[in-house]
TrEMBL record:
Species whose genome carries this gene: Marmoricola endophyticus
Key words, A-Z: ATP-binding, Molybdenum, Nucleotide-binding, Transport
GO biological process, alphabetically ordered: molybdate ion transport
Molecular function GO labels: ATP binding; ATP hydrolysis activity
Ranges where the ABC transporter domain occurs: 3-232
Domain Mop: residue ranges: 281-346
Keyword field contains Acetylation: no
Pfam families cross-referenced by the UniProt entry: ABC_tran (PF00005), TOBE (PF03459)
Classification of source organism: Bacteria, Bacillati, Actinomycetota, Actinomycetes, Propionibacteriales
Transport found in the keyword field: yes
Listed name of the protein: ABC transporter ATP-binding protein
Length: 349
């Protein structure tokens, strides 16, 4: 019998693809699931919910969930399109969640009132879903999901359709609510903010398998996939190390301060890269003449993210610096990087 609250080790076949997931989680844990499009994040949720045919083992709260039919699994799923019942009031939508699990009418009503209050939409109880904003609807959808007293909550990009301020407020409300939740929450997200505000751990999914699982700080410090690196704003390059040098898969060499041998991932902060128009003559051991591929404003008007390559680099700089350097897409630039700013980790074969 498994020690973990949730213990999953499954294989899922989807068309031509075979996806394989393994995850153990403790009571009360919130796990962010990240990865590129098509990596298998939704498939992982489907495997837990029982809506995808799976082989392997899945235990939740001491029960063998392979023996629990899908409709009896104590699992609540919230998507970005919340799909509330349009003909029922907000209150009735949330009560439905509880009643569907066999809860009595009075208890369901009490639970719905409590949850709507907690999610700060108590005053909307008599409205119909059509009379709610996107953020309000999403709160009601969360209330309805939690009213089922689930053992596992599956949140599939629940903030994706909301504007930034609404999403931020809902994150705060959800963080409070999840703090008192004793089950396991899996949260699929493409937003690094979720990692640092909601997640106890981050599960990085790549190409139908778990590429990394660690605390948000661990993944931020040493992301093991380019997607995770981009998400947390770090650079990651693949290469092969011999004696303090790494021959990058993209061609150029990189000098590092850490001895390593064999396949490696090298990571570094965008702020560690210095850009110049002339070849730099400072102490930086690594310098490359490269090309500006894309310049993307950060939305605050003051900072710009430059994508360069080869080698593929991301660099954050101020709009003044962009102007001073005369950076433009397709234009040349020198990038330099100190050996001591580079972290080297072994790559799994
Ligand atoms: N019902 C299905 N039948 C066949 N293949 C499927 C099915 N559902 C998903 N797939 C495939 O399985 C893989 C994983 O898809 P999945 O939707 O789990 O990825 P995801 O990480 O959730 O992606 P996204 O971020 O785009 O939602 C993809 O290659 C996808 O094309």
């Amino acid at each position: 019998m498994s020690e973990s609250y949730l213990d999953l080790d499954v294989t899922v076949r989807r068309g031509e693809k075979t996806l394989r997931f393994s995850l153990q989680a403790d009571p009360g844990e919130t796990i962010a699931v990240v990865g590129p499009n098509g990596a298998g994040k939704s498939t992982l949720l489907d495997a837990v919910a029982g809506t995808a045919p799976t082989e392997g083992s899945l235990h939740v709260a001491g029960q063998d969930w392979r023996r629990v039919p899908t409709h009896r699994r104590r699992v609540a799923l919230v998507h970005q399109d919340h799909a509330l019942f349009p003909h029922l009031s907000v209150r009735a939508n949330v009560e439905y969640g509880a009643r569907a699990r066999g809860t009595g009418r009075a208890e369901a009503r009490r639970r719905a009132s409590d949850l709507l209050q907690l999610l700060e939409v108590g005053e909307l109880a008599e409205r119909r879903p059509g009379q709610l904003s996107g953020g309000q609807s999403q709160r009601v959808a969360l209330a309805r999901a939690l009213a089922t007293e689930p053992e596992v909550v599956l949140l599939d990009e629940p903030f994706a359709a909301l504007d930034v301020a609404v999403a931020q407020r809902l994150r705060e409300v959800l963080a409070e609510r999840l703090a008192g939740f004793t089950g396991v929450t899996l949260l699929v997200t493409h937003d690094a903010v979720d990692l640092f505000t909601l997640a106890d751990r981050v599960l990085v999914v790549e190409d139908g398998a778990v590429a990394q699982c660690g605390t948000p700080a661990e993944v931020a410090a040493l992301p093991r996939t380019p997607h995770a690196a981009r998400l947390v704003g770090r650079n990651v390059l693949h290469g092969r190390a011999t004696k303090g040098r790494v021959v990058l898969d993209e061609g150029p060499e990189l000098v590092t301060a850490t001895p390593a041998e064999g396949p490696v991932l090298v990571t570094f902060n965008p702020s560690a890269v210095t850009l110049t128009t002339e070849e730099p003559h400072g102490s930086a051991r690594n310098r490359w003449r490269t090309v500006v591929r894309r310049l993307v404003g950060a939305g605050d008007g003051a900072t710009v993210r430059a994508h360069l390559g080869p080698p593929t680099l991301t660099v954050d700089l101020t709009t003044e610096a962009v102007a001073e350097l005369g950076l433009h897409e397709g234009g040349p630039v020198w990038a330099s990087l100190k050996a001591t700013d580079v972290t080297v980790q072994e790559a799994s074969a």
